[in-house]
User: What shape does this take?
Amino acid sequence: MDRPTLRVRTPLTDAQLNTLFAAAWPNHTDMAFGPIHERSLTWISAWRGERLVGYVNVATDGGVHAFLLNTTVHPVEQLHTNARGSDATSFIGDPAPLLRRNVKCHCIFRRSNL
Assistant: This one.
């Protein structure tokens, strides 16, 4: 299966994100993502057509460092990811070049949840 289409800072609704998070995280409770995005450096969403299948929030220390948080991949996509590798990078590819083109950061820290 090909990698999904990645979009940087695309508008996302709470409904889209809560649907994705509920599928990926069994104990997820609906929440508002607007306040999180207001404080985020940016975010990356992964799409298959018009279906949201992945998300990662990018936080910052206010300097040149970025941190990948809330990495979430739809379980169906995780099945394909785990066949290729064991982390989110296998799913979305290396986000560093995409982030460097779209935001000012030099060092990106990530922790995989897959």
